[in-house]
Design brief:
globular, about 55 residues, about 15% strand, about 0% helix
């Protein structure tokens, strides 16, 4: 699964880890996260994330 990076704070959403504090279970693809999810570090909108080219 692809990782995505926040363009504002550089937080990387890793689908293998998820974001359990926000109710996103490990194994959840970025595309399957609800549109109202925000970056857990800076509060940026999902639209502020870009595909991470690691």
């Amino acid at each position: 699964m692809k990782k995505y990076i926040c363009s504002l704070c550089s937080y990387i959403y890793d689908p293998e880890i998820g974001d359990e504090d926000s109710g996103i279970a490990p194994g959840t693809a970025f595309e399957d996260i609800p549109d109202n999810w925000v970056c857990p570090v800076c509060g940026a909108q999902k639209d502020d994330f870009e595909l991470c080219e690691e």
